[in-house]
Amino acid sequence: MGVFATVGSSGLLFLVGAVVVVMALGPTSTAALGFSCSNSTAAATCRGIVGYKSPNQTTYPAVQALFGVTDLLSILGANGLPESTPATAPVSKGQVINIPFTCSCSNGTGTSQGIPIYTVQPGNTLTYIASEVFSNLVTYGSIATASNISNPDLILAGDKLKIPLPCSCDSVDGERVVHYGHVVAAGSSVEMIGQQFNVSADVLLRLNNLTSDKDLLANATIDVPLKACSSVIRNDSLDSSFLVPNLPNAAYFLTANNCVKCSCSSANNYTLQCQPSQIAPSNWTTCPSMQCQGTSHYIGNSTGSSCCNYAGYTNQTILTSSDTCPVTDNYAAKINTGAFSWNTVVTLLMVTLSLHHFHNLPTVFRVF
Ligand SMILES: *[C@@H]1O[C@H](CO)[C@@H](O)[C@H](O)[C@H]1NC(C)=O
Ligand SMILES: *[C@@H]1O[C@H](CO)[C@@H](O)[C@H](O)[C@H]1NC(C)=O
Ligand SMILES: *[C@@H]1O[C@H](CO)[C@@H](O)[C@H](O)[C@H]1NC(C)=O
Ligand SMILES: *[C@@H]1O[C@H](CO)[C@@H](O)[C@H](O)[C@H]1NC(C)=O
Ligand SMILES: *[C@@H]1O[C@H](CO)[C@@H](O)[C@H](O)[C@H]1NC(C)=O
Ligand SMILES: *[C@@H]1O[C@H](CO)[C@@H](O)[C@H](O)[C@H]1NC(C)=O
Ligand SMILES: *[C@@H]1O[C@H](CO)[C@@H](O)[C@H](O)[C@H]1NC(C)=O
Ligand SMILES: *[C@@H]1O[C@H](CO)[C@@H](O)[C@H](O)[C@H]1NC(C)=O
Ligand SMILES: *[C@@H]1O[C@H](CO)[C@@H](O)[C@H](O)[C@H]1NC(C)=O
Ligand SMILES: *[C@@H]1O[C@H](CO)[C@@H](O)[C@H](O)[C@H]1NC(C)=O
Ligand SMILES: *[C@@H]1O[C@H](CO)[C@@H](O)[C@H](O)[C@H]1NC(C)=O
Ligand SMILES: *[C@@H]1O[C@H](CO)[C@@H](O)[C@H](O)[C@H]1NC(C)=O
Question: For a substitution probing ligand 4, which of 148, 150, 160 has the most ligand atoms within 8 Å of its CB?
């Protein structure tokens, strides 16, 4: 565990530990819009994901509405929940929810494309919107820049603000990744974040322009490049840029108008695993055949070393490829169908407990 210092309302510094460096409050002074995104591909778009820490008890459809996400299923899948999850299923206060969105790169930085749009409520300030409503995923400066607000102190109820969620479409060390926006918890370290997402501490430091843990600010949103799976999706497919990351707690990502669900894990040597989703398609009356031609196999089936893999889709068909299988002991059984896991419960409990714990302190700073 890290060492903490707490600052009381009197401004006195109470020390709980030995060597102490107190960090500035938050990343609000610079108005960088998103993560660095130098991808030169004209108008590059890709998958972005942020971890939203819900400030209140709420529901998944409410979170979906706040973030302007089109499909609730995409949120459920990114959070390890079954498609059948009822709309009333609670999201607890302090729970971190993975929000998938489309990332767009321009002018050297990556931000969410067009969403969310937030309507200012009576009494809101930009700081409140950035730090409370959007749990520090954005700063008041980035909202002001994205929404072209010249006087950040002057926003009116009913104003519609662009919320630029940070993201990037850049490869990292030549590898395709999905950039995850993670809000740094008080008392965490680069090492801990690296372990949580299975990303090396060196890469985290370099990508976020940090020289050491000392530069890591509580509540800053940092760029965590999640390794993405390789696939045999064709470059002429409508989802040729479909990228699925190895994201802890995520179960599946949907594609082909929701007919196919895919997952990515180290257990399959980071090779994309797909199978029929068995949910109603979003843009077809029924899902096209998912059978590999000339075989009795469907996407996700295997015999010995031959696998029926997902290879993309066109506006009428789903493409398949009879191929070699990834290195694994149990090909088809690997896709988590979204059963509620005890891991989630334990994580939630820990989050809740730590929140209660921190609640007793006036302010918690990152200290070394
Ligand atoms: C691009 O970014 C620079 C600073 O990084 C800024 O001065 C300029 O206005 C931006 N251009 C556009 C079109 O957003
Ligand atoms: C982090 O943000 C939360 C939510 O806005 C706030 O309650 C907390 O005081 C902040 N912590 C620090 C260290 O700034
Ligand atoms: C959380 O709930 C409280 C009580 O209902 C409300 O006053 C507050 O505005 C909510 N916070 C956010 C960020 O929605
Ligand atoms: C931003 O606002 C200023 C005036 O406040 C206006 O002159 C300018 O055209 C606006 N820019 C955009 C991109 O809306
Ligand atoms: C740029 O982004 C595109 C997807 O929009 C991706 O195919 C390509 O590999 C990326 N290039 C680099 C150098 O990151
Ligand atoms: C973490 O990454 C390493 C290297 O890619 C891999 O061998 C290991 O299985 C991964 N662990 C998890 C839990 O994904
Ligand atoms: C990286 O950090 C250094 C010192 O903190 C700063 O001078 C530099 O502008 C930063 N670079 C970027 C790309 O943020
Ligand atoms: C698409 O892939 C084929 C081979 O699978 C290759 O010949 C072709 O050049 C690729 N096209 C593009 C635009 O990358
Ligand atoms: C895992 O995949 C990589 C590249 O995708 C390949 O080079 C490596 O041989 C594979 N590992 C095994 C054990 O097959
Ligand atoms: C083949 O895949 C289909 C669809 O996922 C599944 O229902 C069936 O059980 C699989 N068959 C075998 C032999 O694995
Ligand atoms: C449905 O598919 C057609 C053809 O691919 C496409 O033009 C249209 O935008 C799609 N609609 C939706 C809602 O995805
Ligand atoms: C569907 O595909 C056919 C060719 O396969 C093409 O002619 C047609 O324009 C496509 N329709 C849409 C809506 O994209």
Answer: 148
End-to-end CA distance of the chain: 11
Residue 244, ligand 2, Cβ within 6 A: no
Please give the average per-residue pLDDT across 208-231, as a whole number. Answer: 95
Centre of ligand 8 to C-alpha 242, Å, is: 16
Residue from 283, 313, 315 to probe ligand 12 pocket by mutation (most atoms less than 8 Å from CB): 315
Q: How does 60-90 read in b/e, with b if 16+ C-beta sit within 10 Å?
A: bbebbebbebeebbbbbbbbbbebebeeeee
**Ligand with smallest separation from the Cα of 43:** 5
Nearest to 29 by CA among 165, 140, 126: 140
> What is the tens place of the pLDDT at every residue in 166-178?
999 999 999 999 9
Other Cβ atoms less than 10 A from the Cβ of 346: the count is 10
Q: Helix, strand or coil for residue 354?
A: helix
* Tokens 């994580």 -> residue: 347
Question: How does 19-47 read in b/e, with b if 16+ C-beta sit within 10 Å?
Answer: eeeebeebbbeeeebbbbbebeeeebbbb
- Identity at 275, one-letter amino acid code: Q
* Long-range CB pairs of 71-77, under 8 A, 24+ apart, other chains included: 71/254, 71/258, 71/282, 73/254, 73/258, 73/279, 74/100, 74/253, 74/254, 75/99, 75/100, 76/338, 77/250, 77/251, 77/252, 77/253, 77/254, 77/261, 77/338
d(CA 95, CA 98): 10
Question: Residue 282 is encoded by which pair of tokens?
Answer: 């979003």
> What pLDDT is recorded for position 40?
67
Instruction: Check if the beta carbon of residue 247 is closer than 8 Å to that of residue 221.
Output: no
Ligand lying closest to the C-alpha of residue 103: 5
139-194 residue pLDDT tens = 999 999 999 998 888 899 999 999 999 999 999 999 999 999 999 999 999 999 99
185: number of Cβ within 10 Å: 18
Q: 272 alpha carbon to ligand 12 midpoint, in Å?
A: 27
213 C-alpha to ligand 9 centroid (Å): 33
**At 344, which helix (H) or strand (E)?**
helix 342-359
Give me the residue label for tokens 């090396």: 200
